[in-house]
Write a structure and sequence with these properties.
Umud Fragment, subunit A; 1 helix; globular; protease; Pept_S26A_signal_pept_1; hydrolase
């Protein structure tokens, strides 16, 4: 069954101080159905090498051919495009809509 909003618990420190470990987030899976991600959007992505893992990142820049460069806030504690390269739009799970 498809749900347009999915709930996740933040694990790790790559997005601190904006999102702390243990925070909950709601991700809107329909956010990019008719639009493209923009720089500074906070998104949930599927890890390019471990597809069952969801990562929380910031769109740093859009690149040609629906590719995106994503980063965490804490560079020393973040697995992001500096490690695995740019990601394709199909790896973007959705846009962070709300956190609590």
């Amino acid at each position: 069954m498809f749900f347009p909003l999915n709930k996740f618990k933040v694990v790790g420190h790559s997005m601190e101080p904006a999102f702390k470990e243990g925070n909950r987030i709601l991700v809107n899976r329909l956010a990019y159905l008719f639009s493209r991600p923009k720089p500074n959007d906070i998104v949930a992505i599927k890890h390019p090498r471990e597809r069952d893992k969801i990562l929380l990142k910031i769109i740093k820049m859009s690149l040609p051919k629906n590719q995106y460069f994503v980063v965490g806030i804490n560079p020393s504690d973040s697995c992001d495009s500096r490690n695995f390269g740019s990601i394709s739009k199909d790896l973007i799970f959705g846009k962070v809509w709300f956190s609590y």
